[in-house]
Amino acid sequence: MAQDGGAPAVSRGTEPAGAGAAAALVAFDFDGTLTVRDSFTAFLRWRAGPALYGLGLARLLPAALAYLIHRDRGRIKAAAARVFLHGLTRERLEAEARAFASAALPSLMRPDARAAWDDWGRRGVRRVIVTASPVTVVRPFAEALGAEEIIGTELAYDAQGRVTGAFTTANCRGPEKVRRLEARFGPGVRLLAAYGDTAGDREMLALADTAGFRVFTARP
Which of 15, 124, 188, 205 would bridge with 19, disulfide CB 3.0–4.6 Å? Predict the structure, then answer.
């Protein structure tokens, strides 16, 4: 089924675990691999504007100092969600994410990564984005790219559908990427290829016949 504008709908993970496990799969990390910088940070800056973004960073200082001790990227990401998004309705966040993707996609995407992405698509391979960023922020990019799947960190909402600043999943990084791929496509999932740019992608790359680590370097 296509979304408005003709982009194919991206799976929201409603199919049973293991569905499509036999399909040929290629996995791409998003931030720093398909893009030149972190999409969640860019979204928060775009949404807040320079002045409010600076104030928000000041409020994040305790969480940043705590990160030097616990080194938990998920905790500091949740702190950023609380500071910048707490109380925002799901509908408004999704609308703003779509507006951000429309404005930012040309300046965020690596041309060589996009070329590889499109090449796999022409071969009829199922392409999955596996990202530590919140799925709500990345999904509009995934839909514009024609991704068949997206796996990422899921924001939590309260009973009124407002962002709480917590997550309903573990931060989708490192071994969590493998766990999420196996939950979606079944144990022992094998990838034709996988691409990433940080240590948080190494476990996913180990699943692939072809592992591309920091192979994309072009800038828009």
Answer: 15
Within a domain: 218: no
Q: How many domains does the chain have?
A: 1
């990564």: which residue's tokens? 113
Q: What is the pLDDT of residues 180-210, one digit of tens each?
A: 999 999 998 999 999 999 999 999 999 999 9
Q: What is the pLDDT of residue 204?
A: 98
Residue 191 lies in domain: 4-213
Q: How far is CA 144 from CA 49, 120, 186, in A?
A: 24, 16, 27
Position 3 confidence tier, pLDDT thresholds 50, 70, 90: very low
Give the residue ranges of DSSP H helices in 2-153: 39-59, 61-70, 73-85, 90-108, 111-122, 135-145
Distances in Å between the Cα of 88 and the Cα atoms of 98, 165, 174 are 15, 10, 29
